[in-house]
């Protein structure tokens, strides 16, 4: 149930994370779109401003050229009517400035075919007008004022001026038309820009609201889940306490049962062993009697009687003794495990390295006889646990490593330790014959052994080690391959905490 709740919480967290990331992506895209729209609108504004300025420049150039032509015509007429040279000088100033104004106007309108056509007509009419003006001014300068007046009255300057004014009006109208189109395009761009900003703003508001709702709902669900988990944990702790108490009581019952059964088994076993001893003692008088019978009356001794007394009976007694001795060792082992399970754990601060060195000192003669070297990789983290149990665990593992050596290879045993997440892992590694991977678990079962049975033992040691490790709140496992040695790892809590519960 706890696993299901945890998985549901993880799934919910993953879904919320994905949704929030999607919302953030939408918001980011909205901001990017708004930025692109702002850049686009800014570019359009710059283009519009540039073209508006261009229109104003064209209109100004048109007005300037038109002014020069009008002022030149007024100065010519003033000179014609009055003969005052100031009018002539003014006319010459206007006439001199006119080509530059026309060139400027041509440069500004060369990208517009309509303006180019109007300017072509305008240049032709202005050229004819300037010729007429030059003739009139020349006649006046020569003193032929009457001829100049006659020429003025007969020339087509009025029509030319009308065409020139019309051409200027067309050019001005064209620029106003272009300005209106550009204003309309600018307004459309502004509307598009504001529309994009509005859509982006709406998206951002929706994303913000959706994210807020999602976070609020997730927070509410998370709070509810935490409340449910807290309640479940409280109930789980109560259940674990109850189950632990039940398990402790069951374990105690099993230990008492094992003790009683083992104790009761010893009574008939002692009787069997006693009668077996009497049988063994009785074989000697029978053998003497058989010898006397063979010597004094050999005809009464049959072959079956001879075999029964001298071979069958001693052999049967030997088999019975071997079996009863093995049964006695097994019963003693069970009693030992039972007593160990009832022993009170007394935790204290222990240096595992010092424990190993003490064990090494006690079995140094065994290490020397078997040619085994034992090393301790210091430092090893300290533990607070039961010293007797830890000594029995390490002693059993080290002695096993000295027994199951690989022939032809000097034995080495290395003891090391490390701390991980509040637990201490002690490792006992050897270079012995190794253990078949299929037997990695069965070697910890009672009366089970692995590999070649060439060493004394009843399959009790590793079962005893596992039972002790469990009692200390730890576990034991093995990593081994045939021919490459074994590494036993004891995983113990840094500080032992009693698991017993009173019912």
UniProtKB/TrEMBL annotation:
| Keyword tags | Coiled coil, Kinase, Membrane, Phosphoprotein, Transferase, Transmembrane, Transmembrane helix
Question: Locate the Histidine kinase domain: which residues?
Answer: 260-496
**Segments traversing the membrane:** 20-41, 192-215
Which portions of this protein are annotated as coiled-coil regions? 222-253
Which SUPFAM superfamilies is this protein grouped with? ATPase domain of HSP90 chaperone/DNA topoisomerase II/histidine kinase, Homodimeric domain of signal transducing histidine kinase
Quote the PROSITE patterns the UniProt record gives: HIS_KIN
- Is Phosphoprotein one of the keywords UniProt gives this record? yes
Report the enzyme's class at the first EC level. transferase
In the Enzyme Commission scheme, what number(s) does this protein have?
2.7.13.3
What protein name does the entry list? histidine kinase
Q: Report the source organism.
A: Sphingomonas insulae
Identify the taxonomic lineage of the organism of origin: Bacteria, Pseudomonadati, Pseudomonadota, Alphaproteobacteria, Sphingomonadales
